[in-house]
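Quick check before the chapter quiz. The format below is the same one you will see on the exam, so make sure you can read both the input and the output lines.
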Amino acid sequence: MSDNLFQTAGESAYGRIRADIITGVLPPGMKLKLEVLRRDYGASVSTLRETLSRLVSEKLVLAEGQRGFEVMPISVENLLDVAALRKFLETHALRQSFAQGDVDWEARVISAHHKLAQMEARMAEGDRTDTDLWKRYDWLFHQALVSACGSQVLMDAHATVFERYLRYQMIALSYRGAIASAEHLAMKEAALRRDADAACDLLARHIQGGVEHALGTGAIR
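Here is the expected output.
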């Protein structure tokens, strides 16, 4: 029973700290002091060490040897690397998904796009009260597009890289306006037509546009 409680505490701390890094609550370069984390996340020091080591392997935390841990810094070079890897994985997964998707997959894509489009309409009107929800719907739409690829390994790799890209979005990106909404709509329509070439071209422009927008904010050095 105690093992189950330990695993529950460990998973809870891992999930909360990970989410706080991705959303910027724990900002890039922040020193992660174990005593402070113990107080804020209600986990033991030994549990936190395991949690932070796990996040080191995901490139979300940087181990500094005897000096402890810090939130992984951000940089232009890293953003470009993450964006390129996302494009590579998502393009491959898109082609597989378009080839194998069935009517249930189409329904997932339509449903996910509907939620995203509704949130984008609110953002376009100046309502920025649910930015976290907007990015969640963005993630769910892209996940739906690749969800019929037939490979859990590919899905897991894509999810990991997307979340690293999402971290930059939360820190440096804001809503790009009608152009981003139009790209999402066009990707949904390409999916329903099974037009993988068009979708991959759209995805490349979509990611590049996001990168250029992030660099234009000046938040990444």
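If your answer matched, good. Residues 76-216 form a domain with the Four Helix Bundle (Hemerythrin (Met), subunit A) fold (CATH 1.20.120.530).
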